[in-house]
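Reproducibility note. Readers wishing to regenerate the assembly model reported in the main text can use the exact inputs given here. Chain order matters: entities are listed in the order in which they were concatenated for prediction.
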Amino acid sequence: MQTLLLVEDNPDDQFIMKRALKSAGVLNPLHILDDGQLAIDYLEGVGVYCDRSKYPLPALIFLDLNLPFKSGFDVLKWVRARAEFKGIVIVVLTSSEHLVDISAAYQAGANSYLVKPPRAEDLMEMAKSFKWYWMIYNRFETVPSL
Amino acid sequence: MPELSFVLNREEEVCHDSIHLAPTPSWDTIGKSEHFVQFYEKDACLIDSVSAFFAKGFNKGEPAIVIATKEHRQDLMSRLSAEGFDVEKLKADGTLTSLDAKETLEKFMIEGSPDASLFKSVVGRLVERTSRRGAGLRAFGEMVAILCGEGNSRGAIQLEELWNDLGKEHLFALFCAYPLHGFKGETDGQPFAHICKAHTRVIPTESYARTGSTEDDRLREITRLQQKAASLEAEIAIRKKCQEELERRETELRDFLENATEGIHQVNVNGKILWANRSELELLGYKEEEYVGHDISEFHADPEVIEDILFRLKRGEKLHDYEARVKHKDGSIRYVSINSSVLWSGDKFSYTRCFTRDITARRKAEEILETTVKERTAQLQETVADLEAFSYSISHDMRSPLRAMQAYAASILEDYCGKPLDEEGVERLSRIQRSATRMDLLIRDVLAYSQVAKAEIKLSPIRLAPLVADILDEQFGSERAKGWITVGGLHAVCGHDAYLTQCISNLIGNALKFVAPGNEPKVRIWSECLDGQVKVLISDEGVGILAEHHDRIFKIFGRVYPEKQYSGTGIGLAIVNKAVARMGGKLGYNSEPGMGTTFWFTLPSGGES
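Running the prediction on these inputs yields the following structure tokens for the assembly.
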């Protein structure tokens, strides 16, 4: 089963996302990272993340743009600059509706751009759609580990 | 015996016989001493008369003197030859003397008047020489007519007198002739009368001679002429009146155009200025000779514009409110509005009727208006952009805690339905609380921001020392007590009390907050004064600011560090930025990551040192 990564600094949004995915029936392992630097460390396998059995490379990353230290764009550019990560699906998940951000995200190589709905229940619905589209219909490049 | 029917005194002449009117001159009845005048309309008729006059004379053996124009002499000689007279022989034996009128005239004229003694020596001698004992002498003279033709009727009359004087000493019949067209003018009436009076006989022109010769015919003719004269006089009176009216009207129109308060001028098809009125000249500052007669394009600042104007006018277009730039004599450029049309004679371009109005003032006002509108629009756009950023961040940043509250509440209801709350459940409740508090903070900060986003504020001199002291007392009492804040010398600035309070308290708060964990904050606040500007500085020895985060930190709710590391909504610097801008100052900072940061802002000095 593919691993999913959630790069999100807001603990409430972390709770909501975790719960939404669970409620939608997405049972894949979900790793939550608090900031952009940690996301890069994870993908690079730096520090504790070198243990790929515990921290496998993800098939899909939920990426918030508004992160402390390194921004979501920094992470996006960093990932897309590396050929080995080309197959990782990056779904930007952010509160920004600005066209500038949407455009920049796609320019930088995002696969999809989701805007966090203001209402929690709407996020639940979004998680369901996500499951059907991305987890059932969509094919990932990464080979399922084990 | 010579007939003395010669009248000496003109006045006496008027009594009875007055002037003989002969329908057809019967040259037989001409006395030996006569001075008569014939008026003629056609030269040929004159020659008829003169040749008949001399022919009769030659037949009687009377010599002749002809003082006439070259053409008349030539014609006369031809005519006499045709009549059978051997002109050359007559000339040779002294019977006929032919002289040029002008040449003879010059011999005795002095400064426009005939000189009596010279006349006597020239003409008198001629008469003496030509006269023959016992025979009359016939003379034809045009000198007087020439003088009249030159406009010297005075001279002509004087000459007539001299001839009359000569007639007292010698015997001759003098035939004077005047072309009637020389007396066509109204003012010619008097000299005409004088001339007639100077003669013994007046012979009317050939058109009279054509009428019948009976007394009855004559009377009818006279009556007809009287009627004609009367009607002509009436017409002259009318004409005079019309003339006066016309002149009055012309004066009026001329005044109207000349003194109109609008610039008016005429330009011909080639662009040459034919005429310009006073206003036009004043408008452009030129004297008449510097403008009229010159090419209009000399005075236009944009050659393609004047080309277009002339092109359109030639095409038959009428121009309304056509704007152009013209050169004033003093070198400045004036904006004008032109109304123009062409007067056509058939399809020939006579001239343009141009009206020029100075709209420089209006243009300047428009330019100022445009500039003002641009400025205001820019300001408005800034305000709108601000508002957008503002409402955007409200809707997103503030709905975030709301979403969290909903989620936690919903999750509790789902998971703990009927069950008592465990640690997890309590945690969720406290998170709801936290979110609510956060929302409150956000609302408070947004309000604080909106306070400094006001458009028009009044600035006044503010002494910073007491203001800073108040801030420290109210908000940072304990920090100051711990020695974390030092205050240096503070000048007075020109600013706004509330805004300054916001700025300084936010900057001090940040300086105290952003220290490395474990370190004590060290904050200093002071000001410097240079060239009428006061720079307020707040320095710290905290974590510093990375260059890549520069844009983020000034955004509404923009933050670099996670909430758990350094609390706050991220509104602080957005407020400081806005407040400083509103006070007309500049905000800046110097920072060394890991070492510290110094924020500063400048404002005009508040006067005191």
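We highlight two features of this model. Residues 506 and 572 of chain B are 6 Å apart (CA to CA). Confidence is low (pLDDT under 50) at residues 1-23 of chain B.
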